[in-house]
């Protein structure tokens, strides 16, 4: 046998080719620290059932998934072509036609890399798929450059009108569509176009994207800044930046921590068992929005004798809502990221994009729970749901499931509308849409619908939840503590039972009145059909003759005056 011959061990050529194709698809994706071989995964079915519209683009389609799926998504095709023309007229003074040909040749060589990024087996000819990659990548790169004041002036387009930035910025849904999981293209295409068209300028695509989506404000943006986060598309870039940002802030405080500060490291594991996570608040028995069938976790049953902190092997539910935490001596405060403090806009329009920050911390020394502000805008639900969907498709060390954990954490903080109002009063939640407490509570309940909590069990944040669940502060007065519990737990429970009792009595009374009216109607009808002679005479409702009282006989006339007649 020749050295180059590979034995197939009885494997048919078709099976061998299929194995080669599947292995190539898994291995060609560049495995990085925070990404897995399949970068653009599909939305899990259970998550899609919660709100399928949140996982579909509303205005513009990017990539092959929704190409030509709806007529309203095709109107942006002309804008994409115009953006590509504007991009070709930037950078080095080279003919646009020459740049276009170089871009096409470069993309044609990336077929295996592009197909390896998608979980679906794309049943599309490579020429058609390459055309989609070229037009969409050109549009996105032009959009990122035109949205940056510095780069837009430095790499000024020689085409008039130059760019679509104004038109896109006026449509907030377009920016939101760019963070839909199944509406992505590999960033490797944007990097390749940047190398060819803007050869003389070193541009960080990731930095431009973070600036565009609101995570790096213009005042902090630097052309040479490289965030250093591994990503394969825009949504993964945002997720990686959220996780890396939390790790960076955590690393700065690592040297200042002591044994009393959360979170304490997990000690030896003695016994492990499986428990279903309760779907009710441990204090007031209100619905916490968890799917009991999905929310299954591993919990360590032993406790630390010194700190009385529940030890975890994976994750535990936050079984204390915000008022109960206050009764236990926990102080909830809102925090603002350093890059937002000087640019906080309380009158922000609801269609503006705000970044996420889930770097929640608990200081056991003083019982302070620091929660970054959560801004509710038009893009919040779509972006958060798609970040959770991306996490649900990734497991292990490549994903810390920060967004899934945050959704479960906020659900644990709220068990009724009053809890939502408490967090709004503390400015932890900023409602730019004026949804109201009930709709906000429904929003947080729906955001975790269909979430597989087992996949988020590797998040290190569950250690902090264990500490919060067992925390007992010393600064909370007994009167204040029991007044909060009485107001939040006992009184609502009594009113709920009282309302049920009153409602049952009211329903019983209405039923008895209805039954009495029905019986009266039946007896009237029976009496009508019981006397046909009266019915034929036309006296439908007159009583029968024998039932009428007899007229008394007439009185005799009075005697005449004067005696006997």
TrEMBL record:
Keywords on record: Membrane, Transmembrane, Transmembrane helix
Task: List the Pfam families hit by this protein, alphabetically.
Answer: DUF247 (PF03140)
InterPro entries in UniProt: DUF247_pln (IPR004158)
Q: Which regions span the lipid bilayer?
A: 506-529
Show the ranges annotated as biased composition (Pro residues): 542-565
What are the start and end residues of every segment in region (Disordered)? 540-565
Q: Which domain of life is it from?
A: Eukaryota
What is this protein called in UniProt? Answer: UPF0481 protein At3g47200
């Amino acid at each position: 046998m020749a050295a180059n011959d590979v034995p197939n061990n009885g494997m048919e050529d078709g099976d061998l080719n299929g194995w080669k194709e599947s292995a190539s698809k898994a291995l060609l994706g560049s495995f990085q620290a925070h990404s897995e071989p399949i970068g653009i995964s599909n939305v899990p079915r259970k998550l899609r059932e919660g709100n399928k519209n949140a996982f579909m683009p509303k205005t513009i389609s990017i990539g092959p998934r929704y190409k030509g799926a709806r007529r309203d998504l095709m109107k942006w095709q002309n804008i994409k072509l115009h953006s590509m023309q504007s991009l070709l007229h930037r950078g080095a003074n080279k003919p646009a036609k020459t740049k276009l040909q170089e871009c096409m040749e470069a993309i044609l060589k990336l077929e295996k890399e592009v197909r390896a990024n998608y979980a679906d087996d794309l049943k599309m000819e490579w020429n058609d798929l390459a055309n989609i990659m070229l037009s969409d990548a050109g549009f996105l790169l032009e959009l990122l450059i035109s949205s940056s004041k510095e780069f837009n002036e430095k790499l000024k387009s020689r085409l008039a009108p130059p760019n679509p930035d104004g038109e896109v910025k006026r449509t907030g849904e377009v920016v939101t569509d760019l963070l839909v999981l199944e509406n992505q293209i590999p960033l490797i295409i944007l990097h390749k176009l940047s190398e060819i068209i803007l050869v003389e300028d070193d541009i960080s695509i990731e930095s431009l994207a973070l600036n565009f989506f609101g995570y790096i404000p213009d005042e902090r943006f630097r052309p040479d800044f490289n965030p250093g986060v591994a990503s394969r598309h825009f949504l993964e870039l945002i997720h990686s930046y959220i996780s890396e940002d939390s790790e960076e802030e955590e690393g700065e405080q690592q040297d200042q921590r002591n044994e009393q500060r959360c979170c304490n490291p997990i000690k030896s594991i003695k016994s492990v068992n499986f428990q279903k996570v309760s779907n009710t608040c441990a204090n007031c028995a209100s619905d916490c929005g968890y799917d009991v069938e999905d929310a299954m976790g591993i919990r360590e049953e032993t406790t630390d004798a010194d700190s009385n902190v529940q030890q975890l092997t994976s994750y535990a539910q936050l079984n204390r809502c915000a008022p109960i935490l206050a009764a236990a001596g926990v102080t909830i405060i809102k925090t603002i990221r350093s890059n937002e403090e000087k640019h906080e806009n309380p009158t922000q329009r609801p269609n503006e994009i705000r970044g996420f920050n889930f770097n929640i911390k608990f200081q056991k020394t003083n019982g302070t729970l620091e929660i970054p502000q959560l801004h509710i805008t038009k893009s919040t639900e779509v972006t958060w749901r798609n970040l959770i969907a991306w996490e649900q498709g990734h497991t292990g060390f490549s994903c810390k499931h920060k967004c899934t954990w945050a959704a479960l954490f906020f659900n644990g903080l709220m068990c009724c509308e009053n809890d939502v109002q408490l967090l709004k009063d503390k400015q932890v939640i900023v409602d730019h849409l004026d949804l109201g407490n009930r709709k906000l509570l429904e929003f947080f309940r729906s955001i975790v619908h269909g979430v597989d909590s087992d996949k988020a069990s590797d998040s290190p944040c569950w250690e902090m939840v264990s500490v919060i669940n067992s925390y007992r502060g010393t600064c909370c007065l007994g009167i204040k503590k029991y007044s909060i519990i009485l107001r939040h737990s006992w009184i609502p429970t009594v009113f709920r039972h009282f309302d049920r009792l009153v409602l049952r009595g009211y329903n019983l009374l209405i039923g008895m009145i209805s039954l009495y009216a029905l019986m009266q109607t039946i007896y009237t009808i029976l009496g009508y059909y019981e006397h046909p002679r009266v019915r034929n005479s036309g006296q439908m409702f007159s009583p029968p003759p024998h039932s009428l009282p007899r007229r008394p006989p007439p009185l005799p006339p009075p005697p005449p005056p004067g005696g006997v007649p």
